[in-house]
Amino acid sequence: MTPTHGTGGLAGDALGAEDRAGHEGEHEGGPAVGHGREPAGEPACEPEGGPASSPGVGYEAEDRAEHPAEQEAELHAGFLAEAAHWLHGLFGPADRATAAVRRILDVGCGPGVASHALADAFPEARVLAVDRSAGLLARAEARAAAHGLADRITTQRAERPEEFARSGPVDLIWTGNVCRHLGDQQAALRSLASALRPGGLLAVAERGLPPRFLPRDIGIGRPGLQARLDAAVEEQVTARRSRLPGATSVVEDWPCLLASAGLVPAGTRTFLIEFPAPLDVPVRRHLHSRLHGLLADLGERLDLVDRLTVEQLLDGDACTGVLWRPDAFYLTAVTVHTARLCRPHASA
User: Fold this and answer.
1) Which pLDDT value is given to residue 72?
2) Largest CA distance in the chain
3) Average pLDDT over all residues of the chain
4) What digits encode the pLDDT tens for the residues 56-115?
5) How far apart are CA 230 and CA 75, in angstroms?
6) How distant, in Å, are the alpha carbons of 14, 69, 114, 194, 259 from that of 61?
7) Phi, psi (deg, nearest 5) at residue 212
8) b/e map of 308-335 (b: 16 or more CB within 10 Å)?
9) What residues have CB less than 8 Å from 211, skipping those under 6 apart?
C-alpha cells in the first residue's frame, strides 16, 4: 500500500472520531481515530475492485496491527517521511543538517511513526518520543525495536504542556495534532519553544483539509453526506474546545502564533495523501473505523436519514458499505508550519 508520488498527510483535520479515541485511550497528543469491533460476515456480493475476502471479518482493535492508531499510521507513513526530509532541508546542506540536529523531540508521538521518519531523516540524531498514553508509547517502542532504532528512539510519558520543556534543549521539535487538544494553544507553543536551543526548529502539523473518501452522491441517502459530516465535526470541535481546561480563543494563524511564542517563521508546506479507488483492504478498514467513530460521536447531530446512511456504509455484508464499494477513495492534506529560535531565551 503505497501513496502516489509526493503525497502524504494526517487525517486529523478535526476532533471528531479522533478525539473520542483520544479520550478513550488516554491520548491527547498524536492522531488517533474512533474504533470498536465491527464483525462482518461474508458479503452478499463482491463489486469490481473490492477485496478478495471480507476486510471486516474478525479484525480486532486491540491487535497491534489492527489498532486504529496503527491503521492511520500506515496511511501517514509516506507523508511523515516526506515531511521529515523537508525539515532536513530547512537546516541547510546535508552535512550541515547532520551536524546541527542531534536531539529531536516528537510531542504526541502516538505509535511512533513520526519518530521513525525523523530518525531516518536525521541519522545522527536521537529522538525522544513523548505522549500521554502508556499504551501508545509501548507501541512506539515496539516499532523502534522492529526497525533497529531502539538505541536512538526513547520514550517519555507527559500530560501537560509545561512538561514538554523538561527534555530541552533540543534541535528539532515535531508535534502533530497536539495543540488542538490543549485549552491554551499559545501557551503550548511557548512551552514547546522553551525546549529549543538557539537555531532550533519547531514544526507544527495542524489542520489542513478534511479527509474526503466518498462521492457527493453515493446512491443511498441524500447527496452531500460528507459535507454534512464535516460541518457536524466542526461544530463539535468548537464545543469540545470550549470545555478544555484553560480554554482560550485564538485566531488559528499558525505563523502568527509561532511568532508570538518568540520564534521566527521558517516556512510552511502542505502535504497531500491520496489513495485512489479502488482501495486496498487496510485503507478500507481505516475508513470503516473512522465512520464508526463519527457515528458514535456525531449521532445526535445528524438527522435520521444521515444516521441510517452511515449505518449502511458500516454494514460489512452490504455492497453499499465502505468495506466493499468500488467508488471509495482517500484524499486529505495537512499543513506543516515551522519556526526557528534565533536568539537565546530571556531566562537563559
Assistant:
1) 77
2) 67
3) 81
4) 333 233 445 556 667 777 788 999 999 999 999 999 887 777 788 999 999 999 999 999
5) 20
6) 21, 9, 21, 37, 40
7) -115, 135
8) ebbeebbbbbbeebbbbbebbbbbbbbb
9) 11, 13, 290, 330, 331, 332
- pLDDT tens column, 196-221: 999 999 999 988 899 999 999 999 99
For residues 258 and 164, what is the distance between their CA atoms, to the nearest angstrom?
Answer: 16
**Measured distance CA(255)–CA(261) in Å, rounded:** 10
Report the C-alpha gap between 69 and 197 in whole angstroms. Answer: 31
Work out the angle at residue 74's Cα, subtended by the Cα atoms of residues 72 and 77, and round it to the nearest 5 degrees. 110
**DSSP H helical ranges for the chain:** 16-24, 68-90, 94-100, 113-121, 134-146, 185-193, 225-242, 254-260, 281-298, 304-314
Nearest one of 331, 330, 287 to 310, comparing CA atoms: 287
pLDDT interval class at 247 (50, 70, 90): very high
Neighbours of 206 (CB within 10 A): 21
Residue 143 C-alpha cell reads as 516499532
DSSP at 183: S
Q: What is the pLDDT of residue 66?
A: 56
* Chain centre distance of CA 147: 21
Residues whose CB is less than 8 angstroms from the CB of residue 272 and which lie 6 or more positions away in sequence, other chains included: 6, 7, 8, 9, 331, 332, 333
Q: Any bridge partners for residue 153, and if so which? A: 127
The CA R_g of the chain, rounded to the nearest whole Å, is 20
Distance CA 183, CA 189 (A): 12
- Neighbouring CB atoms inside 10 A of 148's CB total 9
CA dist., res. 189 & res. 201, Å (int):
12
Contact 333, 271 (CB under 8 A): yes
First to last CA, the chain: 47
Q: How many Cα atoms occupy the beta-carbon half-sphere of 184 within 13 Å?
A: 12
